[in-house]
From TrEMBL:
Keywords: GTP-binding, Magnesium, Metal-binding, Nucleotide-binding. GO terms for biological process: cellular response to heat; cellular response to nitrogen starvation; endocytosis; Golgi to plasma membrane protein transport; protein localization to Golgi apparatus; protein localization to phagophore assembly site; protein targeting to vacuole; protein-containing complex localization. GO terms for molecular function: GTP binding; GTPase activity; metal ion binding. Mg(2+) binds at residues 33, 50. GTP binds at residues 26-33, 72, 128-131. This is Putative adp-ribosylation factor 1. The keyword RNA-binding does not apply. It comes from Phaeomoniella chlamydospora (Phaeoacremonium chlamydosporum). Belongs to the small GTPase superfamily. Arf family. PANTHER family: ADP RIBOSYLATION FACTOR-RELATED. SUPFAM superfamilies: P-loop containing nucleoside triphosphate hydrolases (SSF52540). Gene3D superfamilies: P-loop containing nucleotide triphosphate hydrolases.
């Protein structure tokens, strides 16, 4: 009975749907904020380096997402852990053209995934900037990040471009399906 009432109230917009918390992380200049606003409004916006965070409510499929885009500068990364609680999934964005910093990205990803508060969080890696010359493919990025060594975690990697939108739907569809099956 209670479930029926809440469905009716939700359908009428009188009952707030629970938001699923998603973090967008990655090194600076990976395209995290561009991705956030591609998800939110479906277009590319002019961005500046994120000092702190951006947060937006995004409706994707039948899920209400609370999407947190955290700055990726070296000085900001230690504060990422302050946002880990109650996170259903992490979207880790890689600049696929920045070969010199793949090792740093791998180290940051490994440290993050070792955090207890993210133990149950799914991981979607977006190998971004595929529209740029010299971009490494998803296979090469996966190898550099040692994703094949991950155990007891749902993860996927998708080659994408936050600028032209290619690959974003594929990755987000996987994320939504995975988060829904875990809840």
């Amino acid at each position: 009975m209670g479930a029926s009432v809440s469905r009716v109230l939700t359908g009428l917009g009188l009952w707030a749907k629970k938001e699923t918390r998603i973090l967008i992380l990655g090194l600076d200049n990976a395209g995290k904020t561009t991705l956030l606003y591609r998800l939110k409004i479906g277009e590319v916006v002019t961005t500046h380096p994120t000092i702190g965070f951006n947060v937006e409510s995004v409706q994707y499929g039948n899920l209400n997402l609370s999407v947190w885009d955290l700055g990726g500068q070296t000085s900001i990364r230690p504060y990422w852990r302050s946002y880990y609680a109650n996170t259903a999934a992490v979207i880790f964005v890689i600049d696929s053209t920045d070969i010199d910093r793949l090792g740093t990205a791998a180290d940051e990803l490994a440290a993050m995934l070792n955090e207890e508060e993210l133990r149950d969080a799914s991981l979607l890696v977006f190998a971004n900037k595929q529209d740029q010359p010299g971009a490494q493919g998803a296979g090469e990025i996966s190898e550099a990040l040692k994703l094949g060594e991950l155990r007891d975690r749902n993860w996927s990697i998708v080659a994408c471009s936050a600028i032209d939108g290619k690959g974003i739907t594929e990755g987000m569809d996987w994320l939504v399906q995975t988060v829904q099956s875990e809840s």
